[in-house]
Amino acid sequence: MAGNSFGQLFKVTTFGESHGPAIGVVIDGVPPRIPLTEKDIQVDLDRRRPGQSKITTQRKESDQVEILSGVFEGQTTGTALAMLIRNQDQRSKDYSDLKDIFRPGHADYTFLKKFGVRDYRGGGRASGRETACRVAAGAVAKKILAKASITIHAYTLSVGDVKATKVDLAVIEKNLVRAPDMDAAEKMIARIEEARKDCDSLGGVIETVIQGCPAGLGDPVFDKLNARLAHAMLSIGTIRGIEFGAGFAATQMRGSAHNDPFCNKNGAVRTATNHAGGILGGISSGENIVFRIAVKPPSSIAKEQETLDLEKKPAKIQVKGRHDPCICPRVVPVVEAMAAMTLADCLLIQRSIQG
Amino acid sequence: MAGNSFGQLFKVTTFGESHGPAIGVVIDGVPPRIPLTEKDIQVDLDRRRPGQSKITTQRKESDQVEILSGVFEGQTTGTALAMLIRNQDQRSKDYSDLKDIFRPGHADYTFLKKFGVRDYRGGGRASGRETACRVAAGAVAKKILAKASITIHAYTLSVGDVKATKVDLAVIEKNLVRAPDMDAAEKMIARIEEARKDCDSLGGVIETVIQGCPAGLGDPVFDKLNARLAHAMLSIGTIRGIEFGAGFAATQMRGSAHNDPFCNKNGAVRTATNHAGGILGGISSGENIVFRIAVKPPSSIAKEQETLDLEKKPAKIQVKGRHDPCICPRVVPVVEAMAAMTLADCLLIQRSIQG
Amino acid sequence: MAGNSFGQLFKVTTFGESHGPAIGVVIDGVPPRIPLTEKDIQVDLDRRRPGQSKITTQRKESDQVEILSGVFEGQTTGTALAMLIRNQDQRSKDYSDLKDIFRPGHADYTFLKKFGVRDYRGGGRASGRETACRVAAGAVAKKILAKASITIHAYTLSVGDVKATKVDLAVIEKNLVRAPDMDAAEKMIARIEEARKDCDSLGGVIETVIQGCPAGLGDPVFDKLNARLAHAMLSIGTIRGIEFGAGFAATQMRGSAHNDPFCNKNGAVRTATNHAGGILGGISSGENIVFRIAVKPPSSIAKEQETLDLEKKPAKIQVKGRHDPCICPRVVPVVEAMAAMTLADCLLIQRSIQG
Amino acid sequence: MAGNSFGQLFKVTTFGESHGPAIGVVIDGVPPRIPLTEKDIQVDLDRRRPGQSKITTQRKESDQVEILSGVFEGQTTGTALAMLIRNQDQRSKDYSDLKDIFRPGHADYTFLKKFGVRDYRGGGRASGRETACRVAAGAVAKKILAKASITIHAYTLSVGDVKATKVDLAVIEKNLVRAPDMDAAEKMIARIEEARKDCDSLGGVIETVIQGCPAGLGDPVFDKLNARLAHAMLSIGTIRGIEFGAGFAATQMRGSAHNDPFCNKNGAVRTATNHAGGILGGISSGENIVFRIAVKPPSSIAKEQETLDLEKKPAKIQVKGRHDPCICPRVVPVVEAMAAMTLADCLLIQRSIQG
Questions:
Q1: Across the interface, which of A3, A13, A78 has its CB nearest the CB of D2?
Q2: Model confidence pTM above 0.95
Q3: Number of domains chain D contains
């Protein structure tokens, strides 16, 4: 038990290093009789894979998934579902000069302190490449949610100081940065290209909206739905924070303004506002679940930086290779995957107490 | 498994409703031979308990803890450590009129949707009273951390729009609001009293600093130290968000400014800045661990609000009883307790892979 | 996490030492809206408690259970269900002379090696007294099973060399030894009294029959239903072995004789024989689940024995106090409780993959 | 969570069906810096693989293992260790006629009842082929145990009514049936060939001896070392029972004879006899850990049997293909693997409470 698993009933375990032979994922607890093919998985993998556009890394990884078990004649069997993605574009030489030096902002130093050894090739296990496995697992989770009419949309709300001014879910996949606003998208892309030219990188905010989630998911006390989602999101390497509903702005509101009044909408219990972000007491309320995460600017930059080498002596470093100047567009499918895994798990847990 | 437990090796399970006979906690995985008495626990319980000052609720609960098992002749035995707190001030009549109505901002409606039944007396299991058990467990965790020279300080950084302008850990317990700045504390207290007079409530931000944490704690991938801490913090009922190090501000920084350069301080590997908040790749780096959480304004206010009753008909509600106008000072020890539980767990896990 | 919990969805955690202030149990994952009172629990506790007949220990413990949480207005709420049993008859003086010596067959030595400290009063956490908490939790599990028409009967099949020659479930509670055969019971009781007079003790075999269990419970691979039941049974301190269906005798059968032929009984798929004990591939088949466990002769005997003291010097010991000459009749309800907890857990897990 | 994982800190998850593209295993929690190569794994895999001798199935599977992650430059890194074995000899046609019929003694019917769907090719997930993954994981566990000087030997104690009359660990790998007695081995082999000629199969008993295990491993209460080992062993598909030390014979002993007297052997606390099988109160005592398991006769026999088809109509079946007439010699390495995984887990847990 060293952190490679996520979930209680829908339990996802990933493995693999960025420059080893393969990465993969095993899901224990997939309900049986869900139609599933490799194509279902590939759609989301293609949204995450490198080289997809001019504003992402130009590394080439086709990220072809192979289902190894748990599916028979086009549907899940209820047994362990395993998926494999072979690594292809392993330019290990790009990384061999990183053997003796700690990259700022990366996990090189902390892995060494934790384990006393590290696979220095491209970040090894700490590489963002690992998230491909999450996307594959998330695609399976989405199939479970689809049967329950739950949908998840994540999108880039801001890049640096450029913020979307409207949210149109229909345009997210129509611009390279996955913003919900075509005009803002254009400006975001310009900013990203600017940063790349400067051998630098940019952060941003990703917002997620979950629609159709029934009231009752999530557990009180330690496993509140927001606590689980926060765990899920902060487990993505590049995330610095998360806020639900009104978020940090709620700290400057009075209770009378922040409380969402209950009201009757066509016979359903709803709330007039949604400052709570769709979760009350850790349990979904039936309103849209809304949260935002802070994505840091990528640590791998071509600009020269100060650091130390293994002997603790000062050194200069320029991180070579082909890196993302802003990771937001590629994090969007990872966020959706982690949200899907979390909700699928809550859905199965809720079923277990009914009947 | 319905969310009443937290932790992997240092596993805390709480139980109890606010108006039942008692609340309590069992810890499975306490290392043996740690000196421990009820007094060690009581110190932190007294920092959390109601009625401690003019700006908290005036409910009276002495919150006397009784150790039931796991301690023998003044030290832990390694077996399940159980602690009990009897409920005393159960003015159930204050709550009986809430039987048929949903309080805005509370878990009344979502508990009913989840379980089909709810203990409506004072929030039942959803009551903040449950956090007393966390504080008791946290006090045990702190003993483990103390042996490893790890200390945790949480404090109220802001209340509404009043923000501390300096951080002096020495004054936190010297003002009612637990701020690290005596001047700001005075203003915060004034704001809180103002809100109370208006039958309203206020939110705030609590910051936590963990000192002395060695590099190497936390697990890569899903159980990153920040992911676990986020889970821990968002499991506190009143929290709307969390950010580490530079937090949401990092989304407006470039990578070259955000990356913390490694440097050699007296032979130790350190970083010149700490935008990462002491965690790299999900593993502690040896720098101070720093995070902030958004505390919402309490939902229980005496002001009249719109809501629905059990029949989904519009209703007015004034939440009677004696409530906290700002919960920050009483959340501070809960935050410390959850952080302590998280770190103690990571410490035990790290030991298991060494040797 | 030090072994004080059992189960995945119906998760039971016990605490308490035999001579501390109290023992107790918390169940996380009880489905809501199950009618439950303290009387429901007390029935089974009374079947386990000491002093119930002339062939059990004469210690007096009334073992009165108090429900602390998780039940409201006579039904479960879905939140953590906690129960407490105060210890009463703590003749600690009976045990103080055991402080410096290892009782043969007991856990005195191994607890000391594991933890470096031990509560030497009456076995502390290793005492059979802990099983009262299991019985209380099992009573809750039985309520869940009752709704699914699953019943569990355990009984003393043999004591020493006296074996029941017929199985009549109706007579189990009509004789002191809980045998399914009144004639054999008489002989068993005589044997037990004989052993007691000799300051000695006797073992036996307990058989369990689970009726009404639907096909489909239990998980393939590591969590087979028989594997879980074996875990459950061997976790009872006094058990030396377990066998399902034909058991060890199967090792002397040929496959053609051992395989249970499928047949159609009134439209249902059944098997003509039940050598498999109602479990195929780790999953219940719809036949009765049948297993037997080996109960060792109690280690606490008044006869003088050879042993060592804390300084590893030879010593003589006579275990004073009031002990059971044969523990079988009091283990019967514990076996039922562990079986009930295991099945309730499997039932909830199975529900989670349906729908 | 559907039973595909085993262990708490050394957590093993397997996947794969007998006739899918591959089977494999992921281990989460492998301590770092353990030297490991594919050769280390292959040695044990070769002891389990089909076609190894005239008395096992003649199916050909080379069972070549590929390490996919968690090992770098010849040593473990502490990250998820994944291993893959491609399936080769998939004569699916041998099984297609089993699509509409339930094989007696197999999991065909129960899988269908549990999941509503089943991969009927060669047992799918229920196939013994899955145990190859356990053997691979066990080989890693053995490396951890070797560092702690713990060794595990399993051997065939009896086949049908032929029993070994002595135990010489040195000869186990020198006879085809893996018996600790060359003379008995010869007779066992003759019995097995006899059974095969009769289109039938035979069961047997496997005994395991664990040497060098320090006192202190295993947890009191629910996770006793014997309870964990029983869980581990009964999770092997073909096992009908388990007994420790004196086992079922203990039920016919008196306490004075069964208790193992403590004695001082060269300054060490030991016991004069070992009826407890090396475990007291669920914790290892420092004596050899000894247990026996009952292995049923394989269910796949060429002899004609009565059964039902999917429509619940009577049918005759002869299980074609190439099956093991007695599975004992191939179960021996699986037993060792499960024991190794269990002990490695306990060792890591024990480390976590020390320091």
A1: A78
A2: yes
A3: 1
